[in-house]
Design goal:
By secondary structure, this protein is mainly alpha-helical. It has one domain. 68% of the residues lie in helices and 0% in strands. The protein has 6 helices and no strands. The termini are far apart. Bound molecules: zinc ion. The site of zinc ion has 5 residues, from α3.
């Protein structure tokens, strides 16, 4: 099952606690659809590279460069 928009936003905000957080991150790593949703959300919220780094392991699966490029438009 895909995470909700609210769950993705909470993850970006660092408001998700384990074990839900780990579950969301694992889902994003394997699910291209949700990675795209998450990227679009990150862009719309203009999150910083620091915020993406704070997501730890998941940020490596995300194209941080692309997010920042889109966010700076
Ligand atoms: Zn998904």
């Amino acid at each position: 099952m895909h995470p909700t928009e609210g769950e993705l936003q909470a993850l970006l905000d660092g408001e998700v606690r384990e074990p839900l957080r780990g579950g969301l991150e694992r889902h994003l790593v394997i699910c291209e659809t949700c990675t795209d949703r998450f990227t679009a959300l990150a862009v719309s919220l203009s999150v910083t590279e620091h915020a993406l780094d704070a997501l730890g392991g998941f940020s490596r699966a995300l194209d941080v460069e692309q997010v920042l490029r889109l966010a700076s438009r």
